[in-house]
Amino acid sequence: MHNLLWSPSEKQVSEANITAFIRFINEKYGKIFNSYSELYDWSITDIPNFWAAMWEFGEIRFSKPYSQVVDNLDTMLEAKWFAGAKLNFAENLLRYRDDQTALIFKSEALEPMRITYAQLYDRVARLARSLRDMGIKTGDRVAGFMPNMIETVIAMLATASIGAIWSSCSPDFGIKGVLDRFGQIRPKVLFTANGYYYNGKAHDSLTRISGVLKDISSIQKVVVVTYTEEKPDISQVPDSVYFDDFISKESGLEIKFEQLPFDHPLYIMYSSGTTGIPKCIMHSAGGTLIQHLKELLLHTNLKREDKMFYFTTCGWMMWNWLVSSLAIGATVLLFDGSPFYPDSGTLFKLVQDEAITVFGTSAKYLAAVEKSGIKPGGEYGLGNLRAVLSTGSPLSIESFEFVYKDIKKDLQLSSISGGTDIISCFALGNPIGPVFAGELQCRGLGMRVEAFDLNGKPVLNRKGELVCTAPFPSQPIGFWDDPEQKKYKSAYFDVYDNVWRHGDYIEINDKTGGVVIYGRSDATLNPGGVRIGTAEIYRQVETLSEVLDSLVVGQNWDNDVRVVLFVKLAASVELTNELMKKIKTVIRVNTTPRHVPAKIISIKDIPYTISGKKVELAVGNLIHDQPVLNKDALANPEALEYYKDIPELRN
């Protein structure tokens, strides 16, 4: 068993939200539960009563009650949640209208900005009025190409109040990456800042937006937030208006929250583009709300007095998760910039200065802080910090130990894991349970998560495929433009019948109830915890005349994953430094800096299946000295020989 690093005190256990929830369940259903494991077992066997209790405990605001918690519980693709209910997501996030600080925004270059819950409500009301005045209605798409700032949250809430659908991506995406996403969903309004800050520099967004507009004719209005300069020139951007000129000047407005079904679409998120252009994953308002309330209230122990921070961009589901903290009335901190500018302690200084209580980040960040040599616990005042959350990639045992040795001894370290696909977590924190090095504390309540062996049978204390064997409310309501659900079914249900296969390897510890995550079991890359699809890299590399073909894999390296690109070059072309630079530039400009490979290696041939698919997993196995089991499915199995013992992969 892994080392025990932390256990909650009796006081921490007695004051936890989840303890109150257990009392609530015991009274409501006549139970005598005393532990998380008892509660979890009940939550996955009596699924309707668990989610009904969560609806009540989470104090979900609704105008019409549900008639049934779940219909078709035996069929993952057809389960229908909370039929008959009418509610609005934004109304639930704006339930507080007082003078407590709702949002604090910190950027590299500017002093912190703050707004209260009352001010947030007022600004959302004014922006919603402007969107309605220009004709935005339920079901329309509104997109954000925005830094993680206050106006982004206001734009999302105004969109959701109308019942329109919000979709955002990070401003470091290149034109192609934006078109691959927003081009599919045809938004009517695009919110953008004029730029963003990273590593001490202001980066322009408007030039890219001008390029995007040439190919997305649906956009009727571009609303520009002034950020990196006083009055940016927006004349190059057609149909553009400054945010401050667009938002209604009226004060004292009441928001008309459209009352919509539980499964009305709220967000469109994007898959990583492993097998082509990214899939557009639609998430429901009710499913997102009830799942986030469960995870924030019960698993994160979030309360009104908390100050909640997550280092994320608006292109990652952790942004959506973070913003849902408003429903609990906590203070949410937003950050734009590099976590290492001007130095490695930047975010810990923020924890100190703003008295942050819950600090969310990535495994890659924690490893980088440790390497930098700083010891945050000794250098910054972290007295208020009670929880650290980590996600994106598996957190190494060394990083677990670093947190307790050099950040703070008494805190709950929650390594959490789920995904864009479910806009939530399969495994995460348990505030009333111990933390063991290398383990996620528990499986999420109501999530029937198992590890399947090669025969599709559940196993304990052994590595297997992460699967979920019962429906849950935050399953996607489908993919955009996928009327027969073909893409949706093939993404999650093509391996096991009526079982969600997620694409991660996990191990469930039957003694602790904890989960170890081993990383992806498919071709998605995860450098620094950011999921990257290989197809997005191929599409750029193979535009170059010098490259005939290519193959991308992730190599486990230094407690992370590094992207390795193999290129099959045209006759008489050599892989010079100039060509490597050219390849990296075309990838960086058209995708994001995270897509740029750490290694580019010239190779004689690329292996393919008989049906014409590149064999990434087999090459991944080879470079990690693991056996290749599916050689029979290859059109050119001899090509695999080129990937053995490659010297460049040893450093």
Give me the side-by-side strand order of the main sheet.
Answer: 6-5-18-17-19-20-21
* Form type: globular
Number of helices: 20
Count of DSSP E strands? 34
Runs in which pLDDT lies below 50 for 5 or more consecutive residues are none
| Gyration radius over CA | 24 Å
What structural category characterises the helix and strand content? alpha/beta
Seen as an oligomer or otherwise, the chain set is: single chain
Mean pLDDT across all amino acids: 93
Distance between the termini: 32 Å
Largest beta-sheet details: 7 strands, mixed
Summarize the amount of helix as a percent range: 25-40%
Strand content: 15-25%
Structure description:
- The strands form ten sheets. Strands 6-5-18-17-19-20-21 form a seven-stranded mixed β-sheet. A five-stranded parallel β-sheet has the order 8-7-9-12-13, with helices on both faces. The protein has a five-stranded antiparallel β-sheet with strand order 27-26-28-30-31, with no helix packed on it.
- β22 and β23 form a beta hairpin.
- The chain is built from 20 helices and 34 strands.
- With 651 residues, the chain is an alpha/beta fold.
- The model has no long low-confidence stretch (mean pLDDT 93).
- It is 29% helix and 24% strand.
- The two termini are 32 Å apart.
- It is globular, with a radius of gyration of 24 Å.
- α6 (117-133) crosses α7 and α14 packs across α16.
